[in-house]
Specification:
mainly alpha
Amino acid sequence: MAAKQNITVAIEPALLKQARAIAARRGRSVSAMLADELRDLIAEDRAYEAARQSAKAMLKTGFPLQGARMRDRSEVHDRRRVR
C-alpha cells in the first residue's frame, strides 16, 4: 500500500456533521470518502483531457465524410434545367 499523507480541510460544522452521517451510513470514514471523491475527480479530469486531445487530433486530420461530390455554384443555379 502506498504511503498516505494527512491534509487539513476547513469546512463548516454543519457540513462536517452531514458528511459524518453519510460516511457512517456507508460504513466509511470521512477521510476515505473524500479520498474516493478525489480519485473520481482526477479520473474524470484525465478522461476529459484524453477526449479533448483526441478531438483536437481529429480536427487536425479532418473527417472522412465520403459524401457525394459538391456541385459548384454554376450547376446549382443553372436556369436552363428549370425551363
